[in-house]
Amino acid sequence: MNIISMIKRLFHPLCILPGHQPNRLVPDRPKLMAARTTGLGRVFRQFVILFFIVVPASGIKADTPRLSFEEQTISAGSERLIAQVPKGYRLELLTNKLDRPRLMAFAENGDLVIGSKSGKVYRLSRPYTDPAVLVELDDYPHSVAFRGGEILIARNHGLYRAPYRPGQKQLAPISITLLAPLPGGSGHSSRTVGVGPDGRVYVSLGIQGNCSDQYLDDRYPFEDRRGGVYVLREAGGKSYLEPFGTGFRNPVGFSWHPQTGVMYASNNGPDHLGYEHPPEYFSRIAPGTFHGMPWYQFNGEKIIRDHCILSQPPRSMSDVVMPVATFPARNAPMAVVFVPQGAMDKSLEFGAIVALRGSWATKPTGGYLGSKATRRPPKIVIVRFHDGKAERVDDLVTGFQNENGDRWARPVGVAVGPDGVLYFTSDEGINGLFRLSRK
């Protein structure tokens, strides 16, 4: 372990950003918490202080650089809208001709395919300004992915596939077949599909509500196996879903770090604990990890029992994996994408871009009936990474909510295109596609 890692483990500084609650880096779940209070821990802290007095700082790496911002006017028909973007970047509205677009993926030839809550699966070819309907489906085609010569479509009740060739302009509904059934139903009804660096297919889904007794395990009825990430197993012509990471309330977005191949996911926290708690999660997922919900919550400092659900937890509190970073409560994190090497600019490489859609919660109680001006503003953020570890959370694009609480966009899907720039969808206010690129 290098000296910087040792210091972070001991002092775990928080990254405080503007707003009512800090975006923050969460320390690894310690047994090192106990070490801080032991004589050995105190001796080590004194050593660290002496080290910094004696040893020159030139050999210590600085944090990733902070972003600076500028206002930019966005044209949306006759409207002129103001956003804050990083200096040197330009934000464009490419099209507002989408109907409740959600998550998206780029095909091999650069075509962009977008799922939607309206049932339309859209296809856009460069320059991504003229959407066409690839296919229209029922059962909420929320997300898509590509592998080999096929397209994968995640719908409420199942994961589907169809033969697909790059540039294909339409998809016949009859060509779409079920790959694996999924527990469907109301509540958190979106289903997200992605193909990992290992070539395997992953699907995420949320539990129905705040405290639903649902879990990814064979001990539960099929319709209640919700709340986490599945990995698809395929052998002998058969396909089945196997739990990969469990104990999430609603992990809408997930992606893989380009250097380490590790999966990270966003997670929507519950609504029943007020406006400020609990924070929203950004979590590292490994095979078999348990993230606690709905039986346990991370309160910003430690894991606690949530007594809104009285059933026996499937695993113990000591098994709960803490998030590596958090966002303020009631932010509704959506899609996640990592910035690959060579995309955007060097300072953003390997960071995780997350769409924060902003929930309906208002101050002071977190209910719906307060002033809409107190709602968390939608925005795009980036979890900065250094040496494969989450370092802090920075704003990337803001300004989607006016002072009176009106929202002119709510980001949902994020993707980095083959051109190395960021694309994101909005499903409320403007129903459209945006691009953030270098000037």
General description of the model:
With 439 residues, the protein is mainly beta. It folds into two domains: 37 residues, no CATH class; 354 residues, Neuraminidase, CATH 2.120.10.30. The chain is 7% helix and 39% strand. It has a five-stranded antiparallel beta sheet with strand order 1-23-19-18-17, with no helix packed on it. It has a five-stranded mixed beta sheet with strand order 13-14-15-16-20, with no helix packed on it. A hairpin with a 2-residue loop joins strand 10 and strand 11. It is globular, with a radius of gyration of 22 Å.
User: CATH topology of the largest domain, which one?
Assistant: Neuraminidase
Helix-residue proportion? under 10%
Using only C-alpha atoms, the radius of gyration works out to 22 Å
Q: What is the arithmetic mean of pLDDT?
A: 89
Topology (SSEs and partners):
Elements: H1 3-11, E1 24-25, H2 32-37, H3 39-54, E2 69-76, E3 79-86, E4 89-95, E5 101-106, E6 112-116, E7 120-124, E8 132-136, E9 143-147, E10 150-155, E11 158-163, E12 177-181, E13 191-195, E14 201-205, E15 228-235, E16 238-246, E17 254-256, E18 263-267, E19 280-285, E20 289-290, E21 296-298, E22 303-305, E23 325-327, E24 333-338, E25 352-356, E26 379-386, E27 389-397, E28 409-416, E29 422-438
Parallel strand pairs: 16-20
Antiparallel strand pairs: 1-23, 2-3, 4-29, 5-6, 6-7, 7-8, 9-10, 10-11, 11-12, 13-14, 14-15, 15-16, 17-18, 18-19, 19-23, 21-22, 24-25, 25-26, 26-27, 28-29
